[in-house]
Specification:
Length: 382
């Protein structure tokens, strides 16, 4: 057992014993074990400063310190602090068993501008097998990795395919997987997949993991809980890729940092699809999409706007349109007319867009784009 695993286990044992003694009224002994739990967690945070669960551990330390202070001051009565700590340990199993909350997004393909190559690859991997599973005697991909610059539509693509096949859509992230309770992250992963397998007996199910690099990236130092969670995930992925099982459970992962993923994780995703910055035609579509509810002057030239925003992401363009709208609304308020419910902002002109673009730069650098293209050449799998 590694040092990190030992510290993690010691913290759990000390805290559990502290709560037991606290409930029995053994205040001196309870305070002693709370201090031991504090010491173990503090050492863990100090040894592994970049670990994702440190925020949780620090919160535990602060809670235990508050309780120690109350015990030492002689407050024996049940308090908010005592109830908080006891609930943490006595009811953590019940809380950690909360089921994933499946959703049914309502994003259509035509709401995702451009990205035709990515759309085709996703349809081949998910939509076609759902519509005609009999045409796939060798099975079909269950793991799809979407990577590329931030703000280019990875989440929209996942939501659109879920709408297409009327699938349950469970969106998870590092915070929901890496539990606030010590030592149950791997249980959360197992439960997530178990619920998804059960759901797909009735309809397709998609697990969407956003910013997956924060969960499954390569790290120089890892503590026990992170290792166990990672191993459990790989085990679950191996299980759903069994060609003898025809259920429609898919895992779509999105990342802005594909180079941080380790190979064991990458190879579980048979489809690795780059979601690039929007090209000219896509930028044209995005501008039209985000200005549909804005009153525009006749001088607004979409093609010119698409041309001068080369290198901008979809979210960059949305922010530009939002800023333009905010400027004309600000003018309305400054004029005092906004308080008349019948007043409306003036039409947005081309000059409004140009003024915003003079003070904005793309959020993705050319060096970042080159890094994505290099990784794509090494690991692409459409």
């Amino acid at each position: 057992m590694s040092v990190s695993q030992q510290l993690e286990q010691m913290a759990m044992q000390y805290a559990a014993e502290a709560v037991r003694l606290d409930q029995m009224g053994e205040t001196d002994k309870a305070a002693e074990y709370y201090k031991k739990a504090i010491d173990a967690l503090s050492k863990l945070v100090k040894l592994y400063p970049d670990y994702g669960l440190n925020r949780v551990y620090i919160e535990r330390v602060m809670t235990y310190k508050e309780r120690v202070k109350l015990l030492q001051e002689g407050y024996m009565e049940s308090s908010i602090h005592e109830e908080k700590i006891i609930r943490t340990h006595e009811e953590q199993k019940e809380d950690s068993e909360e089921k994933p909350n499946p959703d049914k997004p309502n994003i259509k393909w035509d709401e995702v501008a451009g990205l035709n190559d990515a759309k085709i690859a996703i349809k081949e991997a998910i939509v076609f097998p759902v519509k005609r599973p009999d045409l796939f005697p060798l099975g079909w991909p269950r793991g799809i990795l979407l990577f590329g610059p931030p703000g280019c539509g990875k989440t929209l693509l996942a939501a659109a395919v879920a709408t297409e096949i009327e699938a349950d859509f469970v969106m998870v992230d590092a915070a929901s997987i890496m539990s606030k309770w010590l030592g149950v992250a791997e249980q959360n992963v197992a439960r997530l997949f178990a619920e998804a397998r059960k759901a797909c007996e009735k309809r397709p199910s998609i697990i969407f993991i956003d910013e997956v690099d924060s969960l499954f990236g390569t790290h120089d130092q890892e503590v026990g809980g992170e290792v166990r969670m990672r191993n459990q995930f790989l085990k679950e992925m191996d299980g759903i890729m069994d060609k003898g099982k025809n259920y429609h459970l898919y895992v779509i992962a999105a990342t802005n940092k594909p180079w941080d993923l380790d190979w064991a994780f990458i190879r579980r995703f048979q489809k690795r699809i780059m979601v690039p910055l929007p090209d000219f035609e896509t930028r044209l579509e995005i501008f039209k999409l985000y200005t549909t509810k804005m009153e525009l002057s006749r001088d607004v030239d979409y093609r010119e706007l698409a041309s001068i925003t080369e290198g901008f992401s979809g979210s960059d363009i949305r922010d530009i349109c939002q800023s333009v709208r905010l400027n004309v609304i600000r003018e309305l308020f400054e004029s005092g007319l906004a308080y008349d419910q019948n007043s409306q902002p003036r039409s947005v002109s081309m000059n409004d867009f140009l003024n915003i673009l003079r003070v904005r730069r793309p959020s993705v650098s050319k060096e970042m784009v080159a890094s994505y293209e290099k990784w794509y050449e090494n690991f692409k799998a459409l």
